[in-house]
Amino acid sequence: MRRDSHRRWIAAASLSLALALTARAQETPPEYFEEPPEQPHLTLQWDFLARYDNISHLRYYPAISRGRFEVRPEVGFLTSSTFRIGVRGSFNYGTEPNEDNALYGDNYVSRGAYVDRYFLLWTPGAWTVQAGAFGLPVAAGEMLWDKHDIQTPGAAVSYADQLGAATSLTFTAGGFYSPQHYQDESILGVGQVLWKSGEESRFAIQASAAFWNMDMRNMDPRYFRENRVVFVNGKVEYKSKFQLLDTLVKLQFPVAGLPVTVSLDFVHNFGIVGSGPNAYEAGVIVGTVGTPRTWRAFFVYQNIGRDAVVGAYNTDDWWWHTWAEGYRFGASYTILPMVYVQPAVVFQRRLDHGYWINRVTVDLVKMF
Q1: Residue 12 confidence (pLDDT)
Q2: Which runs of E-coded beta strand occur in 95-202?
Q3: What is the pLDDT of residues 5-34, one digit of tens each?
Q4: Average pLDDT, integer, range 218-225
Q5: Percent with pLDDT over 70 in the chain
Q6: DSSP reduced 3-state for 144
Q7: CA–CA separation, 298 vs 296, rounded Å?
Q8: Could you tell me which residues come within 8 angstroms of residue 243 by beta carbon, excluding any fewer than 6 positions away?
Q9: Which residues does residue 90 pair with via DSSP β-bridges, in sequence order?
Q10: d(CA 318, CA 309)
């Protein structure tokens, strides 16, 4: 009997201890279980582009066939979850010499090695601060800025105001100096308001309005491209000023299980001298890439007035940079994780000409 009594006492004591420990665990504040702070560490990322490029039906040039190879490694150092510094190199080899880059309207150096990014990124709470040379920190379409080839030396600050569970309003201001190669000494300022709402898996909308003041100074003549120029004291300069209002809307939603993005971009230049102050771009993207056997298809239409944007800064995936309209469409297929192949074709004409050019590109891309 005494042994049974001891057993009952031990069982009762064990049950009481278990209940006490459970209650203590429930009373323990949640922060007791927070993840330890992120330790400083290095990161290494890289991307790669191999491109076959063919341009035909040019009035003044024979058909052009060329290749481009580019690898860009980036080393970053994270001192905490909110502060990062980094540097990226760009190593390029093209089948055409550097002297032909101006002739072909390229934004990149076909043969060379250089540092194209060096930056710090600080994200304290709702703020984001960037300085150095980095990717464009505001939403913009390709007809305004070549995000792949042109970085933005300068500084930018953003503040994101969370208006609800799925709605935010972000304010960004930035100043940049000399983004293009060679002699560019231009000073650029931008302010943008960006509104996002919804969920991409159901329906999401993104709308932004940005004002750019581009003080163009000492641009190398090879980058004037189709923009109007005048002679001032024996020197070639832009005829128009570039004070741009850029409005961009994106809609994202699924169709038959595939993500769809529809974008509409409109730019108006308040500083134009002459005609052609407006630029339009409309695009549709269906699908996604990155995971093996996933695919994406896209279509883009552009119509750009002669001085609606700065031809030195927008995309070189099209042949003409301004004063033109055209269509670009293509498809991508992921063959390895973060590696895809993408054939694309451009049909484009100058707005003062009646003939069209054809451009075919086939890209092999390794993403960051």
Answers
A1: 45
A2: 112-122, 127-134, 152-164, 167-177, 187-199
A3: 444 444 444 444 444 444 444 444 554 556
A4: 94
A5: 90
A6: coil
A7: 7
A8: 211, 212, 213, 214, 269, 270, 271
A9: 114
A10: 14
